[in-house]
Amino acid sequence: MTASTGMLEVSVWRGSAGDGQFQAFRVPVQENQTILDVVSWIQQNADPTLSYRFACRVGMCGSCAMMVNGLPRWTCRTHVQKVLNGNRLTVAPLRNLAVIKDLATDMDPFFDKWVEAEGRHHPTATRHDPMPPITADAPGRAEADAAIECINCAVCYAGCDTVAGNPDYLGPAALQRAWTLINDAKEADKGAILTAVAQSGGCFNCHSQGSCTAHCPNELDPMRSVAGLKRATVLAALKGGS
To answer: Considering the entire predicted model, what is its pTM?
Structure first.
């Protein structure tokens, strides 16, 4: 990075959700500066009590996700110059999750909904059985592969207006995981998954607004996955009633 060529006016959320406010900081402009660089500069040079999460810095772990100028983003991959409003930035904790402190949110509800959606693999065999061949170009495998790169960053969850209005909604990430398993030839209990996602708070709560797909940093399409679950649950219900 080069020497400072100006100053950014940065508003950062401090405190908890029920007891906090934005605090203003002036941060030097740097070449190729990311939002995470800005937050780290504040913590290292202006206020060491600032709380936030990050790990890898290279866009693989997703732990640094925050709201930047009102939109959920990975801060390590968001360059300041692409989102700057004049010379101003607003950085806040992810929406739809309780704030622990400052920019750090409680991720437990997000992961709890993966459990509610039966987003775990139900094996068809033991480790002692031979592994069956999986055809990469099979339709089900292609559907599973299209959604398997989710890294649990909760950007889609924070961007979802249905989650904002309905805390019981499982959310796009959990439902996308369920759709991945439905299309996995090795999944042994697809019925349990379809039952879970058809319940109150499940896939039929999705309004298909597409914010999850629009904001996904990995360019996945959770809305498409949720649509697939809707079709699958209806088909399962029709077959069960025939």
So the answer is: 0.90
